[in-house]
Amino acid sequence: MTSNLPKHVTIDAFVLAGGQSSRMGEDKGLIPLNGKAMVSYIIQTLQKARLSVKLIANHAAYRNFSLPVYGDVVINKGPMGGLLTALENTSADLVLLVGCDMPLISVEAIAYLISSIDREHLIVSMINNKPNPLFSLYPSSLKTAVREHVMADQLKMTDFILNNKTTLCKTFPGHMSGCFQNINDKAALLALETNWEKAKLDILKF
């Protein structure tokens, strides 16, 4: 799929695994979903899309995935700090930042996001008219601006995105919205496990 990228544009995909979830009571990406760590589904999909995959995580267990793992360059700064860590550890033109709690993300959604990229624009996915910072493309040229926001404790990613002059919004069609289901608590996890096959079929049929 990366063969569809504009010539000489490179992407590194970083999965933001974070740390312990207050609602889950444990590290969200490592929580079992149908016998596999939740983050493993996202890794597999990114690899199917032929992207270079790296992890931002502090738990030693993430090294079992045999991928590059980076701890936060500035601790306790949330997803904005994770973005800074990604930008500090890439030589690619763009970083695709992905949350660890969207196991239904699809190759088709990735292809749709990158279909109009260039080196200069921040491409933010819009799901149900809301920006999703954790499925968006960030140019490496934003590293200094991101670092300044992190060091000033200006950590709201939506504010950073919507106030950035290079931002382009990529609105996803309604039939893709299921790809972005967040598994934020045990009830959502149980519901997805119960309806796993149907959920996967609903994603794949489009």
UniProtKB/TrEMBL annotation:
Keywords: Cytoplasm, GTP-binding, Magnesium, Metal-binding, Molybdenum cofactor biosynthesis, Nucleotide-binding, Nucleotidyltransferase, Transferase. It is found in: Cytoplasm. Residues 13-149 form the MobA-like NTP transferase domain. Its main location: cytoplasm. It is an enzyme of class 2 (transferase). It catalyses: Mo-molybdopterin + GTP + H(+) = Mo-molybdopterin guanine dinucleotide + diphosphate. GTP binds at L16, A17, G18, K28, D72, D101. Gene3D superfamilies: Spore Coat Polysaccharide Biosynthesis Protein SpsA, Chain A. The keyword Nucleotidyltransferase applies. Its EC number is 2.7.7.77. Its cofactor is Mg(2+). Mg(2+) binds at D101. Pfam families: NTP_transf_3. The keyword Nucleotide-binding applies. GO terms for molecular function: nucleotidyltransferase activity. The N-terminal domain determines nucleotide recognition and specific binding, while the C-terminal domain determines the specific binding to the target protein. Transfers a GMP moiety from GTP to Mo-molybdopterin (Mo-MPT) cofactor (Moco or molybdenum cofactor) to form Mo-molybdopterin guanine dinucleotide (Mo-MGD) cofactor. Belongs to the MobA family. This is Probable molybdenum cofactor guanylyltransferase.
